[in-house]
Every structure is written in C-alpha cells, then in structure tokens.
C-alpha cells in the first residue's frame, strides 16, 4: 500500500466519488481508479461499492479508511512540523472543542494565535466528548478542549491538562413560572416534574454529574428529558418552560441572553473542569502547541483579554 493510494481512498470518500477525488489530487480519473483497484488487489477484499449514485465503502473499506486517515494525517503533521520548526507559517491545526470553551475562550485564543501564525489553517469540530474523543483517538484531531465526566477518559490514554474549573447552575428562561414561587416551594420534587433540556442523557450506571445531582437531593431523575446540542438547548430554553444546567461563566454571555440561574435551587450541579487533551504518542507541531498554549491561558484566566504574542 502506498501513501497515494491511501490518500485516494480518503478523498474518494470525502469528495463523494472518483472524479471529484481526481480533481482534488490533480490526477486523471483513470489514475485514481487504477489506484483504487491496486489497493483492493493488495488488500485482497473489495473496498468500494460502485453504483449509479457514486461509491460507498464495504465493511473492509470502512476499516481501512480509519487507518488511512491516521496515516495521511501523520504524514501531513510530519511535514508541518519540519516546516514550522524552520520558521514557516504553514500547515494546519485540527481542534475539537466543547461549546463552553467555544463561547468563553476560542475567539480570544484564536486572535492571539493569529498574531504569530497568520497562514496556518485552523479546523475546529465543536461537540461534547462522544463526538470529539473518537477523532482524537484516530488522529484526525490534534488536540481537544473538553469537560470530561466521570469515567469518560481511560487512564493514561491522553495527556490531560486541567485548565479551568467552573461551577454550574440550574437555569431557566426569564419570566419562568418557577421564578414567581417562594423559594420554599421550589422543591427538588417540583423541579424534576418539569421538562429538562440536556446535552447528555442522565445515566444511572457509575453515576456521573447529572445523576449524582438528583441522587444527592433524594429524588429520581426527571422523566421528561430532551437531549440535544448546546445551541438547540439555548433556543428551546428561551421558548419553553424547560430547565437545564449551564456553567456559571456562560450566564450573561450574549449567546445565553434571556437565560438565568434559578435562585436558591435545591439541586446543586457539580463543578465541571475544562481539560486540554493531547495524545501522548504524537508530538504536537509548533503551531498546534502554540494554539494549545493560547487556549489554556485564555480559558484558565477567564478574563477574555488577549495578550500579545510571546
């Protein structure tokens, strides 16, 4: 198997077909087709299913694609590393980031990073652990800023750098009927009767933060839970009587306008800790290391101020 064959496989999938992959590689469609057939011959199994609507991967093709992405990314990183070490402003950084860090740190960190690296491409994937971790594991991400829950990280799998701890609040929209009640009537039992909008399900095995919060108050988790992405959660909260849980630093942010903390809540969410993750077996390029430094500094301070490049 050659690097070009693996690159062709990844691009056929990413671009949606042989012709588009050929354009991306500056090759003829015949050359890409030959590369795919040679790759299949060497693999000894079909990798692609060819049809009128394009190509799809066989199960063997899916397995090889995961390896191909790791190989092609590591070759690109090796090239970037050598160029950046020689002073070149080139290459790319691929970052996975939790929405909390996106809203509170990414903008300032990116502005700081751009003072030193103006031409390096930055690719971000926003999401929670379930979306980010697989990409960090397979090498398609260089680093990630996440808020891991209990049991979500395997011991020794990643280099973990804690960068910020934040308290959390039960939140609801301004004007919510609960806000008109006396604090003594805002009981835990009343709260769990409400609909909740959360970014993860409430699990019962090895209780993480959410389940522990309800258990500590002596109540069962709410039965009505809508699980969605962070942006959707913000929208739904503003237009319904649902409850949710947000990190305290998000309240007062422009994106959370109209959402407030429930005063004197009988439910007490645990703190979350933003953590910078990198793979211990893959050194960061100079640009990726500098972006990690910018993110850690800005998130750690939490003041939104950009320092000049050092």
Task: Describe the model.
The longest helix has 27 residues, at 59-85. This protein has ten helices and twelve strands. It has helices at 3-15, 18-25, 29-43, 59-85, 99-116, 129-137, 188-192, 209-216, 230-238, 286-301, and strands at residues 48-51, 54-57, 92-97, 121-126, 143-146, 159-166, 168-173, 196-198, 225-227, 244-247, 259-261, 272-278. Mean pLDDT is 88; it is low at 303-310. The protein has a five-stranded mixed sheet with strand order 4-3-5-12-6, with helices on both faces. A three-stranded antiparallel sheet has the order 10-7-11. It is elongated and about 75 Å long. With 310 residues, the protein is α/β, with parallel strands linked by helices. InterPro entries: HTH-type_LysR_regulators (IPR050950), LysR_HTH_N (IPR000847), LysR_subst-bd (IPR005119), WH-like_DNA-bd_sf (IPR036388), WH_DNA-bd_sf (IPR036390).
């Amino acid at each position: 198997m050659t690097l070009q064959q693996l690159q062709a496989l990844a691009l056929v999938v990413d671009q949606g077909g042989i012709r588009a992959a050929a354009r991306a590689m500056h090759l003829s469609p015949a050359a890409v087709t030959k590369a795919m057939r040679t790759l299949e011959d060497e693999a000894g199994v079909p990798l692609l299913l060819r049809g009128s609507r394009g190509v799809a991967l066989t199960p063997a093709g899916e397995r090889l694609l995961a390896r191909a992405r790791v190989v092609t990314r590591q070759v690109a990183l090796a090239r970037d590393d050598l160029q950046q070490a020689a002073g070149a402003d080139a290459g790319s950084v691929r970052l996975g980031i939790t929405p909390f860090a996106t809203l509170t740190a990414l903008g300032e960190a990116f502005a700081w990073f751009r003072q030193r690296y103006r031409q390096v491409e930055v690719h971000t994937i926003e999401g929670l652990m379930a979306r980010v971790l697989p990409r960090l594991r397979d090498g398609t991400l260089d680093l990630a800023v996440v808020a891991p829950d209990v049991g979500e990280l395997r011991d020794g799998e990643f280099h973990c750098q804690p960068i910020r701890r934040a308290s959390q609040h039960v939140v609801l929209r301004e004007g919510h009927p609960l806000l008109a009640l006396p604090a003594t009537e805002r009981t835990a039992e009343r709260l769990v009767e409400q609909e909740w909008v959360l970014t993860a399900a409430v699990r019962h095995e090895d209780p993480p933060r959410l389940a522990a919060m309800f258990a500590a108050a002596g109540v069962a988790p709410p039965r009505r839970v809508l699980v969605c992405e962070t942006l959707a959660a913000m929208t739904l909260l503003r237009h319904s009587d649902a409850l949710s849980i947000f990190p305290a630093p998000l309240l007062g942010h422009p994106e959370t306008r109209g959402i407030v903390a429930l005063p004197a809540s009988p439910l007490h969410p645990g703190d979350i800790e933003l953590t910078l993750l990198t793979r211990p077996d893959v050194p960061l390029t100079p640009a990726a290391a500098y972006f990690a430094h910018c993110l850690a500094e800005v998130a750690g301070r939490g003041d939104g101020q950009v320092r000049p490049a050092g």
